[in-house]
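Re-running Nucleotide exchange factor GrpE to confirm reproducibility after the cluster update. Everything else is unchanged from the original entry.
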Amino acid sequence: MNKTHNESKNVDNQDQDNDKHSSKILKNKSNEGDVKKTKQAKKKNVSDSTEKTSQVKNVNDDISKLNEEIENLKEERLRTLAEMDNLRKRFEKDKIDSIRYGNHNLARDMLTLGDNLSRALDAISSDEKRSESFNNLIDGLKIVQKEFVTILEKHGVKKIESINKKFDHNYHQAMLEVETDEFQ
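Result of re-run:
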């Protein structure tokens, strides 16, 4: 009976060992499943991380492109403002020049008229006997000439003495050239 009892203990021990072994196998299988799940989760995290990194790179690329575009637009705006300022200054200068020199051609043409009037009055000899109406006409022309000179002076046109003076291009206009040893 001892033998049977011992055998039954052995069987019980083996059963216990088998149970322990099967529980270890089950635990190992469940651990293997956990390991697989962990590996899959790590792979998913790595792929998510890679995807997020590429998204961040794309966002950073977009930000740099937008910053570059902003800089280009700022530069273009500054150039446009400078161009507008130059245009405004040019317009103001043209306006001032137009006011200052706008009557230049008119004054030059009027001077021709004044010169012709002076030549006509100088051509009349004072020796001749003239009728009173002719003398009145001459006096009237002298008054017109005097008023003409006054109006020109009022608008800044003054007579410049140039006879027997050195030529100054700031004041004189060359009408013709005459050789002489008198001036240098």
